[in-house]
Each structure stands twice: as C-alpha cells, then as structure tokens.
Amino acid sequence: MSPRQRLTPADRRAQLLAVGARLFAARPYDDVLMEEVAQEAGVSRALLYRHFPGKHALFAAVYQQAADRLLAETRLAPADSLVEQLVQGMDVHLDYFTANRNAVLAANRVLAGDPVIQSIMTNELDALRARLLAALPLPDDSAREAVSAVVKSWLVFVQVLCVDWLIRETCSRPQLRDICVGSLLGALRPLLAEDPAGA
Amino acid sequence: MSPRQRLTPADRRAQLLAVGARLFAARPYDDVLMEEVAQEAGVSRALLYRHFPGKHALFAAVYQQAADRLLAETRLAPADSLVEQLVQGMDVHLDYFTANRNAVLAANRVLAGDPVIQSIMTNELDALRARLLAALPLPDDSAREAVSAVVKSWLVFVQVLCVDWLIRETCSRPQLRDICVGSLLGALRPLLAEDPAGA
DNA sequence: AAGCTTGGTTGACATGTGTCTACTAGGTTG
DNA sequence: CAACCTAGTAGACACATGTCAACCAAGCTT
C-alpha cells in the first residue's frame, strides 16, 4: 500500500523517535498506542518493535533525547550572581516541564519503575548536581561533601515538588520557583557562611 | 468445583483484601494476576471485579490497609529523647520496607502515577509530619511554619532514599538510618534554639 | 543482469486486563 | 413452602502489548 521507502537503520530510528516524541508530548503515555506510532511513521508495527524492544524502551529513548537537549540548552552564564543563575535555571526547567507535561508525568509516575528511566533520571540529576557544585562558591574544600549531599537531596525535592505542581497547581509558577530557590539558599546558608558558628 | 460459599460483601471484600495483601507482598505487582487472586480466594474473576473495579484499586486498598496498620503500630514513646524516637521510628519503618519490599516498590514506582496511591501516600506523610511536629521542641511558634516545611521535604527525601536503597542496597541498614536521622537533625539545628539532640 | 544481504510487510498467535450478559444458587421474608 | 433478592458463576468478547514465521523487495555487489 504505502510507497515503502527503505531507510538506513539510523535514519529509521531517528524518524520513529521523532514521531514518538511528538505523540508522547501530545498525550498521556497510556493513550499512545504502538500501532499509532507505527502508522504515523508510515511503517508496520513489527518494524517498530524491531527498532525498539517495547513501548517502555521507545519512551525511554524519547525521554533520553529530551533530557540531553534540556541539559545542553541550560548552560548557566557564569557572569550573573548565584541567585540570578538559580532563578534562570529554574525558569528554563519550569518552561520545559510545562511544555512537556505529559512526558514528564509519564517518566515520573507511570514509568517511574522502569530501570532505564531510572538511570536516565539519575544521570540527569548527577549532571545538574555537578553543574551546581561548580557554580557554588565553596568556602572550604572539606565542605564539598556536605554541600554535595544537600544539593542532591534538594534536586530530588525540587523534582518531586514540580511533578506535584504539574498535577495539582498548588501555587503560581513564580511562587514555586521562589520556594525552590529559597529552600536551597536556606539549606546552604549554614554551610557556606564564612564563619560556621552554628555548626 | 468449589462448594461456593456465600459471604456478606464486607466479609468477601476482607477475604479478597487478605489474599491480595499476601500475593502483592510475595511478588512484584506485574507478576500478580487477577485470575490468580480470584483463584486463591476460591472465587470467580468476575466477582473479584465486582468488589474492586480494577487491579490498581485492589492494590490501593491493600496498600491503604498496610499504611493504616503501620501508622497505628508506630506510636512514639514520648519519654525517650528526640534522637531515640527518630532512630526507633526509622527502624520500624525500615523493618516494614524490607518486609513489604514488593508492595512498597509497586506503590512508589510501578503505580506512582495512580491518583489513589498518591492520596494514600500524601495522607500517610501528612500524618507522620504532624506526629513529628508534635514531638519536636519548638522554641518559638513563629518557627513552626519553617520547621513544618523542613519536615515535609525531609519525609520526601527519606522516602526517595529508602526506595532507592531497596533497589540498589547502596549502604548498610544502620548507615541508611543514621543518614536520615542525621540529615533531619542537621537541617533543624539552625531552626531550633535549644539543643534538640540533647548531646 | 543475477544474486545476496537486509530493511520491511503481513498475518496469526499468546497473554493479560477489563466488560458484559445470561445464568445459578444461597438465604431471608411473606 | 414459595417468592424474591442478591451473591456468585460461566464464558464470550474487546483491546493492547508483545512474539513469531514466512514472505517481499531495495539496492548494493560481482
């Protein structure tokens, strides 16, 4: 029926990935059918399963691509103040969350159990943590470990809060941003003070 | 086949719940079949679906029951020191997590997207937060809001860390417990005037 | 042009969830 | 005892994921 065009595996994979990205962004995970992905790509279901072992794997590949792009697009300008950098970083990420609502919710809820999704997220959080650590003014290298732990837990907290916000809209977007930035600054204050009198 | 015993809806529901609890504790969510639950209860699949609208609902009911029991069994003895209470509370919860591994993982990963599971967890965390707030020595009532926010974020952090630990076993059990307790004490130290550790 | 490799199709099958309809059989009530 | 309400059964169906075997055809090679 269809003019059956023969592509290289890489090209076909990229095409399927693009179709998947479009559909997973447009609708919730469960509402996207493999049949549909194949159909929109003008391809048989069997071929789709040849390139991706399953629906989870297809989504994981889509999500990995999105995560890579997000990380690449959110380079902080080191000229600004720390607060400025945090605010800008949060804004970019919140833009991404709202634009890719369905995909973010699928990754964090429906597919949170998938080990592949797990590792993609872990890697993303690790990259963000390294970036933040590099941007933070460490007073003492011995504080590095403690700060790293705080940053890691803060990233988890932010992620949980953002996902919750996507569902329940418990506050305004600027409020959410300020809560996140404020909580990190508050958590870091006792660690970054010149004189750690409280500790 | 079976001598078809007729029970009241409440009794039947309780029986199905018990069977579900046993199976969901023994094996991962996806490996437990509705057919199987019905069979073990000596009942038809249709009847199971009459009492619980779907597999998610059955699991949610099982999980709700377990959460209620856990909350009921973990009453802190107010006589001990704060650190003692935290350590004991963590120990009880870690016992529960390791004993109900599969159910906890299902709730936090496979079914994390289910709104019913969501609300069960939210309620459980809220109850724990209220309990902790009551046990904490608040120096000033104006600090209450800040402490509440710290406790809430800490509970999320602990939960995430514990689920991660169930999968990856990144450290020993006492270590995990001490990390959690230590992080809360560290986060609270700048907020609480009196020495909460009593050490 | 013949042939081979490999991208791609077709259609049938297996399994699990969830729905529905018609039927069967306890136990209470008149 | 008979009627009736309702717990429970039987089994077919719809639908989605995932597997498989046989086949077809594009386009490189020789």
From TrEMBL, chains A, B:
UniProt DNA-binding region: 33-52
One example GO MF annotation: transcription cis-regulatory region binding
Protein name: TetR family transcriptional regulator
Domain annotation HTH tetR-type: ranges: 10-70
SUPFAM superfamilies: Homeodomain-like
Keyword DNA-binding recorded: yes
Keywords: DNA-binding
InterPro entries (alphabetical): Homeodomain-like_sf, HTH-type_TetR-like_transc_reg, HTH_TetR
